[in-house]
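Sequence in, structure out.
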Amino acid sequence: MKHRIKLPFEDIFNEASLLPEIRRSIYFITLANIFGSFWGVVCNTGSATLTGFAGYLGAGDFVFGILTAIPLAAAFLQIPFSSIVSRTQKRKKYLLTYGLISRLIWIVVAFIPYFLPAGPAWLRLWTVISLVGISWSLGSFINVSWMPWMADLVPIEIRGRWLSGRDRFTAVASVTMGLLVSAILDRTSGYTGYTIALIMGGIFGALDMISFGFAKEVYKTPPLQLKMLPVFKKIIRDKEFFRFTVFWTAWNFTANIGGAYLARYALTEMSLSYIEFTLSSQVASALVTVTVISLWGKLLDRYGSKTVMWLSCVITAMTPLFYLLSVPGSIWPTLLHNCIGAAFWSGCNLAATSLQLSASPDTERPTYIAFFSCVTSVAGSFLGILTGGALLEGIGSSSLLSPLFPDRYKAVVTISVLLRLCSVFIFVPKLQNYSNHTVVEVFNDFFNKLKVKIKRAE
C-alpha cells in the first residue's frame, strides 16, 4: 500500500475547504517568499553583505545610514502604484516585469567595483546608492501587488497559522543562505566575496518574482478606479487603521535609531567575523523563530492581534540592551539579542501583518497597504535610520559629547530602547482587537494548562 506524502498546510487547507488551484497558488506564493528570504539575506537593508560592502566602499556612519534608508524613501511610490494595481488588476504582470527588473539590478550592483575606476572615491559608493534606490523604486510594485494577492488567496481564519508556517520555511532558508554567504565573505578578499553574494542575491530575487507567475490571480473585488485624495481622507478618518499606522510608524522609527547600526557595530567595534555574526544573528534567530512561530500563529488565531502585540513588543523593545554589555570579540550580546528578540519579533510581525490586512477593506486594500507602507517606511524607518546616523556622527565628532559617551553606539542603543518602550505603552492600548481575549486571559490559560499537566504527572 502506497502512503501519500502529506504536504505542509494540508490540515488548515482542508479546514478552510480550499480548491486545488487555490492550494497550489498558495504553495507557489510560499515558494516565492522562500526565494525572497534568500534575496533578503544579501540585499535587505542592514544585511551583513550590504554592511560590509558599504564599509569597503568607504561609507561613514551617516552615509551608511543613507544607503540603508534611501530605499525606504521609495515607499512613496507605492501610493500611485497602488492606484494602478487597483485599476488594472495586473498583479502578476507587474511582479514579472518591474519586480523582476528590480531584483536583477542587484547583479549590476555586484559588478560596480569592476565597471568603475577606483577614483574619485565617492563615484562607486554613490553609484551603488543610486542603483539600490532604483531597485527599490521599481520594487514598490511588489508590496502593493503581493500582499493584497495573498489576502485574497488565504482566508482570514487560517491566515495566522499559514503565516507562521511560511515563516518557519523562510527562517530555515535564511539560515542556509546566511551561513553560505558568511563563509564566502570570510574566505575571500577584496570585492570578490561581495560580488558573488550579490549575484546570488539577484538570482534568488528573480526566482522570487518568477514563482508568482505560477500562482492564480484571485480578486475579491472588481477593478476599481480610486481617487487618491478621497481615499486618503477615508484612511485618516478610519480610526482603527490610522491608529495602527501611527503605532507602527513610531515603532519603526524608534527601532531603527539604533537597530539599523547593530550589524555595523558587531562587524567593526565588536570585531566579529562574518561567520560569527551570522551564527549569532541570522542562524540563532532563525532557529528560535522555527521553534516558536507556530505558537504565535495559534495565539494569533485564538486571542487576536492586539493581545499578541502586547505580549511580544514589550520584550522585543528591550533586547538591544544586551549590547550595553558588549566587549570586542564577544558574541554573547549579539546572540542573546537575536535569540530573545527573534522569539518575540516573530509575534510582532505576525500581529502587524494580520492587523494591516484585517483593518483594511477589500475594495481599497492596495491603497491602504500603500499608505501604510509609505508612512511607516518614510516617517518610521527612513527617518529613524537617518536620525541614528546623525546621532552617531554627532556624538563621535563632538568634543563635548565624545568624552561623555566613549561608545557612541551604546548611547544610541539606550536612546532607542527608551523610545521604543514609550511607543508601546502609548499606542498599543489604543489598538483594536479582533477578539475579546486579553493578555491576562493568555496567562490564566497558560497556568491552568500547566496545573493540569502537573496533576497528570503526579
